[in-house]
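Regression test attached.
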Amino acid sequence: MKAFEKYNIKIVGNGPKTMLLAHGYGCDQVMWRFFSPAFQDDYRVVLFDHVGAGKSDLSQYSREKYGTLNGYADDVLEIIEAVGGAPVVFVGHSVSSMIGILAANKKPEYFSRLILIGPSPCYINNGEYVGGFTRSDIDGLLQTLDANHLGWSQAMAPVIMKNEDRPELAAELAESFCRTDPAIAKHFARVTFLSDNREDLRRLGVPSLVMQCSEDNIAPHAVGEFVHRQLAGSQFVSLKATGHCPHLSAPEETIRSIKDYLERH
Amino acid sequence: MKDQPEQDEARLASLEESAEELYEFAPCGYLTTTIDGRIIKVNRTLAEWLGYSVDELTGKRFSDLLSVGGKIYYDTHLNLLLRMQRSVDEIALDLIRKDGGAIPALVNSRQKRTPADEPLLNRFTIYNATERRLYERQLLEARDLFQTTLSSIADGVIATDAYGVVTFINPVAASLTGWKENTALGRTIHEVLKLVREDNGEAVENPISHALRTGQAVGLENHTVLVGLDGRQIVVDDSASPIRDESGFVTGAVLVFRDVSERRRSERALEQARTELERVAAELRRSNEDLSQFAYIASHDLRSPVKTVAALTQLLAQTYGDKLGEGKELLGHVTDATRRMAKLIDDLLIYATATTKGKLPKTPVDANVQLAAALENLHAAIADSGAEITHEDLPAVAMDGTSLVQVFQNLIGNAIRYRSSRAPQIHIAARASDDGWIFSCRDNGIGIATKYHAQIFDPFKRLHGNELPGSGIGLAVCKKIIERYHGRIWVESSENEGAIFHFTVPSRISRADDRL
């Protein structure tokens, strides 16, 4: 099926319900490695890579479509249509929590619950609103990305385009975990960190869980609370886990919180 | 002691037995954090670089030492990579010193795990990379400049390595060949760029291969057609040059090409238009020549029979005048008509001559002299009418003297002929302009209504019928002469206000006019 190639869709587990795991900015579906096994008994767990990330079909990437998070939200709907099982439990990390909200605003009937890990509707400070960053901070991030993509070889491009005739490069790719075309990485960074989707929060009609880490540099506590206040029918959970990736740093606590929520609500 | 170097080395090596010393004063920074990123150990080298004491650093988070961009990178990349693959190398981050200054650094990290593969600690080594990062920044800027430039230019550009494998293709080249940048990279130039001859469709040697084979630049291969991925054919101009490294070895080649289909089409259209124009011009010239020739021959040949008729009529009147009675009056009309006819034929001959003849002088002629000659020819009319004729100092002009006399004579003659009740006052002047001299002939005569201004220069156009003398050829002859020198003649006048005739003549002799 076309969508399976395009988004590198993988399905694990065979539970009666479907859970869709959407990775955030900077990596790919591999980041769910310590998380997904815990749900395989109760769910069909669907993993995928956003177009432009991981082993998705890079030829499908376009600056126009992915110039706003809406392009990614449409993809989420396409994935749900491709794998079936709606309404699904959607677990989105970081920017994907916002992508999930946008998708659920378009087709609420596709979603039973949204689990939002470290959500932020707007990363840039704006008047009273404190997102945590300024525009020049984001420029600093783009410079850091530039400095860290020097090793990116143009020779990688054919591999990612799935040129079967150059297997030696395919092996190299397997080693390069979370490796992204620098141009795409920068564009995705810009789209992610300069987006402002605060207005979309209030329109969400699907029940949701807002998960807030301690000491999260990217989505500060105040932002998590803001999201919770704006989302009707949302629950808020504050995790002991620090950082921005609790499903990696503290998978047990993260899994337990989500299971609790899904059992009770 | 000098003869015992081994002992010296042993003594020195013993100084390095202290692991603590090696750690604390290593030539790079060492830092250990919990999995949460809390600093639990840091060496003195790093503390010194950052301007903190070791105690101040302990307990901080590693990400607290990073720039904001670096914090995001840590949380979205570095930390993930460590968890997934235990180690990361050569990550470029800016560390922020206590005083706020930034230290560009390269960071390596290893994750220590339990036997059960549970993460325990993250260890970091930090290298000061100020110079290197500056250099990288310059490289990046150069690359960006190169990319932006090659992406913005209107020509297609493809670069290959020494084996002809495509390493760069700009958007124009991608669109002309029909390939996408990502799919073209890594393919050979033969796959990406198919060239054939325009006339017979035979393959031509790829300019890149030629440049790689010979080490020479290869110029425009004209009449080359690019066959795109979709079979579309585009006429292109192309050139390829080898790329050499510092030692002169060919390390690749670059091809520049452009779509010239449009230019080829317009060249063809232009060529057709020019041929057509030349054909029409030649036809017109021939027909003009024929017409002038005809007018000349006709008027010339008509002249003698008309003269004969005039002479015979006169003889008839003299010899048989008395016997004709009333017929004598009719004979008088015949004589008048014959004289008018002879005059018309003379005028026609003048007009025809004005068209066909006329030479350029070798040196400009003095207009003052030509004006004097014209006035001399007109002396009877001037005397009869009491005309007062004045002129300014006139320039030398690049036109045939006889023609200029003709123009003056016609204009001044007209000014006298079409005088008002006042005595004619006529003034001749000239002033310089961009395209030569503008002469003017001003009179105080009866003037010409605006609606006639255009037609008075047509041959045999007379506004006054027979009430005033003249055949209506004078201004037409002037126009013919002036136009032969690419000049213009026009009138400025209104009824009863006098008239000013203007005409332009070239000030310099143009050799192109020799053909006239």
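Expected vs. actual: identical. Residues 153-164, 169-175 of chain A have pLDDT under 50 and may be disordered.
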